[in-house]
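Minutes, project check-in

Agenda point 3 was the complex the collaborators sent over. CS summarized: three entities, 1453 residues total, and the question is how they sit relative to each other. Sequences were read into the notes so everyone works from the same version.
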Amino acid sequence: MSSPVFVGVPRRMLQVSIDGHDVQVMEGMTILDACGRLGIDTPTLCNLETLTPVNVCRVCVVEVEGSRVLVPACSRKVEPGMKIQTDSERVRHSRRLVLELLGSSVDMSLCAPEVHGWMSRYGAQPQRFGPGAATVAQPVKVDNDLYVRDYSRCILCYKCVEACGVDAQNTFAIGVAGRGFEAHISTEFTVGLPESACVYCGNCIGVCPTGALMFKSEHDMRQADTWDENKQHVTETVCPYCGVGCMLELHVQDNSIVKVTSPLDHSVTSGHLCVKGRFGFQFVQRRGSG
Amino acid sequence: MFGAGGGTSSYREAEETDLVLLWGSNARETHPIFFHHLLRGVRNGARLVAVDPRRTTSAEWADLWLGIDVGSDIALANAMAREIIHAGLADREFIARATTGYDDYAKCVEPYTLERAEAETGVSAAAIREVALEYGRTDRAMICWTLGITEHHNAVDNVLALINLALLTGKVGRYGCGLNPLRGQNNVQGGGDMGAIPNRLPGFQDVEDPEKRAPFEKAWKAVVPPKRGYHLSQMFESMERGEMKAVYIVGENPARSEADQTRAVRLLSSLDHLVVQDIFLTQTAELAHVVLPAAAGWAESDGTVTSSERRVQRVRRALDPPAGARDDIEIISELARRLGCDWGQPTAEQVWDECRSLSPMHTGMAYARLDELGGIQWPCPDESHPGTQFLHARLWKDPVEGPRAPFSVVEHDPPVDKLTEEFPIRLTTGRRLDSFNTGVQTGAYSSPLRQREALLLSPADGARLGIADGERVRASSRRGSVEVPVRFDATLRPGLAFLTLHFPDQVATNVLTIDATDPKSGTAEFKASAIRVDKLSTSVS
Amino acid sequence: MDIRTTGGPPTAAEIAAVDAVLGPPESLWEGGTRVAADDHLARGGRAVRSKRDLLLPVLHGLQDEVGWISRGGLEYACRRLNVPPAEAYGVASFYDRFALDEQPGLSVAVCDDVACKCAGADDLCRELEARFGPAGSAREGAVWHRSPCLGLCDRAPAARVERTGPSGHHAEGRLAPASTDGVIALLGGGVWPVEGEAYSPPALRATSPRGGEEIKLLRRVGHVDPQSIDAYRAAGGFAALRRALELGPEAVIRELTDAKLLGRGGAAFLTGRKWDAVARAPVRPHHLVCNADESEPGTFKDRVLMEGDPFAIIEAMTIAAVATGCERGYLYVRTEYPLARHRIENAVRLAREHGYLGDDVAGSGLRFDIEVRRGAGAYICGEETALFNSIEGKRGEPRNKPPFPVQAGLFGKPTLVNNVETLVNVLDIVSEGGAAFAATGTPDSTGTRLFCLSGHVQRAGVYEVLMGTTLRALIDMAGGLREGRSLRAVLLGGAAGSFVTEAQLDVPLSFEGTRAIGATLGSGAVMVLDDSADLEGILLRIARFFRHESCGQCVPCRVGTKRQEEILNRLLVDRQTSNRDGDVALLADIAQAMRDASICGLGQTAASAIQSAVIQLKVLNV
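CS then shared the predicted structure for the full assembly.
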């Protein structure tokens, strides 16, 4: 009988050139990975290590010698002898335009600080399309007690659809509907979440990069102006429910859990939880008072 | 399995196996994140077979659902074994080298013809044969189960029947193969690891083996009682006999979670002294003479838990407990001090380090390593050991390392609560995605999925009984009766009904369930009660 | 898959429409009623999920027979196919053809795209607005819409009429050239245009100054009954297939390579190399796709081939399948071509009956069959990877390349995808040899090419000429401009192409010839605009077209096409004078980002016509 030890597929090393530097990288890596090895900061919006690359935001594009168009660093695998430019005029232009086009149509104010850093690095001025530029602004959807959807902030990165779908939860409560500028994230016939297939795992919130999907607790605290990340600490622990052993990150402010996430790099969860792990924490802070 | 009480595989293996037999488990709802791993396997090409009386949301993912009658698992497993043997798919080499008791086993399964299995399970002979042959032929296959296997009066036999199948085909001890009980609570496995079972010391060391006891006695400077203790059902029996008069309950709510709840409450109430240590004032705590308010283990104190893949992971204090609630270690140390043993005030890490010094399977699991590696799977005998991805690779060594794995002779034994004309409907129980056990914890958050508890019934049964969807009825078993609204569920076949245990205040499901208990494990047959359903207006009693 | 449906039960008509495509459900678990076997057994999983690719046919069934797709109807389809409703909704809402709210049973689509615009479509629409009501507003069970190009540019202005739903049997027809009275009469329920059996394609303009010796692709069109396999055989049909079977796969691919045939769909890739790559791909099975989703505005040559010579396409697909080891072929035809679809379906059926398709292709022992799939109103599905997704029952979103279709295409398997015209070329190459083919045309652009002339020419139509013929000669063949008119520009290659000026008319129509002047042959659309053309209106129409047809997946195209239209409107309609230069620069900035960073050819070319108008025609300098 064969030896039962799993060792993975053997990989070989390739040589590529990035911005004039020759570097050895592992076969199967993406250009994004390779750039990371060189310490080159590549902007990404729709990429997440736990999800299949959809390469739709196009902010990570780089110039590859011999390619007519720019290529997405997040999904393109390195090839032997590839010559890559990450900061050419063409690259800077497209990255700037992507950030401007998004910034002119979407409320990106709650994006991570590095997104704002990229905006200034590439000189993005979303307002230059003029005051009449169409946006995706719309009212916040609040249809349950656990989380809210503010699609004014949605850049259509597909992450929530992937997390709800094949990459994790396989519930498919939401999908991309419509086409072109009218494309949007939606349940069937835009029914509210309680009528949809949603199981409130919150894995869509876990991957949302713009704050379009948010714990209702966070939303309410932001409305009341009491949300203060400087006063929060994050503690890793294990979910109190079933025996799978999901690692939780408890975000605590003023001795109250205000949000629950899971580390992307944990082998059990890959950042994903179920409704109990994500939202079932209240019991612990509803004691003693009553 | 065979001496080490834990699942043999890692979740990761479910992603890379060829076949999963999900047997008596609605993992989609009860172990959602394990199900993510399983679905990744399905996406990678694995076939999924679900064995469950109900076509659950898990079963909806299956290539094949075998809707067996409740409690006919052994009939199915033994018939599959017979088919595998007759088709020449038994792994003769593995059986000869790594197992014992094959001949008796083969003799035992021989009467389990497909026809007999069809009669016992309700599943067609052809489908049973198909699954048997597929399991036999597939290179890598896993069997995963939950309470559908273990909440029976013959729970251990059920488990043994599944182990037999894996031994028969050499599907354990290899990557992507294995036998995996999915644990229902976050530290069921860890409780076992730590010796919180009647016959074991930490690390599954036999309490009745003087050699295993000796290190503990040396470390603790005390004699460890050399006899196994009682499991839960035996404790209640002992209370009933008037022998056990004082009970100290930590983090359990037997007044609600025990089958035949009326009896459980009566016995707990009649104790001379009941101490309950819990984070809530549970229904059990309300019966107690002394209540010790505790900190919540997962968010208010430090320690470790062990998961269904044997992964020991750290829990950490993120919140200050409410005033008056104390850490379990502090409470126990304080009790010890008052009983005359000063243990000082050990930290969780100090307690753990003592455990590591006495339990070889945990020795390599220093806190620093647990932090660094995101948990470690036992056994981990030293601090250079990476932990163990799957168990029993030893069975594939030639010659086998350690003891050989025994086949067990197990016979089909139908549920104790028989279906009769008076009680014609089979009631089974289970969990829902958003709720947990008796709902003490999950009741505190507002789940949009939650519906009022109702007796799920086949529309055909409803029509036969003249009951409308949503109507309140009386459901009665041989032990008691409850009023409950009916909700039609088209996925239930006629004659099968379902309730959860989540909402004891709405429906005291355990008034109906039977406390017929497995003599070896002490679990009650929550999965199989016989009930009748009557319209309230025409009800006689 | 554990799907959840809460939209209530489907109607009897919806069940019938879905079951007509899928057959009746066999069990409760498939959406039917409980049968005894359901008590203890269910089959699901992969076997059920593998029917996902029937989602579009099922949605078409609902649209045809019910007239729109309700929640109950969609969810019944979802139950039958085990597709989550949110996904199915995402798919249905992607395609123009599927209505997600109740619609009048009778609808007329009036083309207002470039060629029809040249033929007075704007006036037609204005009159319809005045006499019937605005586009999209229903009246007495009827409605009209504006539509992108319907591929009837040779008979502009064109309209398409469709009757759906419970009011009557589903029917499709077209009115070209359309008049206001004609459309009004249709909307009123009368004067249904009769097509189908009695319909014959328009007179072909396949003549040439040199006596027509280069007419190859069109030689049967209009002369051989397209509905009769005997007529096709009498005209030499299936000889190429027999020859291909004699030669064997490797020799066929060698001939194709020697012919240096370049793909006619727009990308101009070496067909022989593509076939070779698929034939050698180690992963099995291989799939064949014939791209008949001809949607580039101004293009209608593939329609003419499908309507006029359908067996040739079936034969060529069979040769391709034999050469590259495919057992299954799909022909994806746009929904706006009902006659072409019916002719192809008829040809497939007859070919199957006569043993040219099926388990033993022409007695060779090889297996091959063809399934005809219907597009649903999405230009993007002409992009090959979007087309794969569409066949698979998904939104027609293009995939990032690599991997290329020859490695991982339809259903993730190695796939040969060729355009209709490309495939028809294969017949002569196999019959007469690759070298003979390579001797025609120019050294780098071999063979003949079909061009679709429309707009301000005397005789619009499909013209077959040798590669290398000049644009001027081609326009002359079509009778030149109308009396007293002068040329403003030619839009070469459709909306994704670019404008060519009078000074460039001597460009040889070959891949290298057009490349030299920064233009492209594209799909073979040649839209001639004289000095009466509303060039600004045409640019706005093109901008609207791309905004409407962008799939919405990638940012540069999704937002870029929107901004491009907004800015053009600002410049040309609102006539804002301030910051004109800034806006022109903004357009150029967007154009560069769309060209460089979009996922697919749609975004990459969405600014090309507009930019060429800015640069070549100096439209915005006025």
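Noted in discussion: The radius of gyration of chain C is 24 Å.
Follow-up: revisit at the next meeting once the mutant set is ready.
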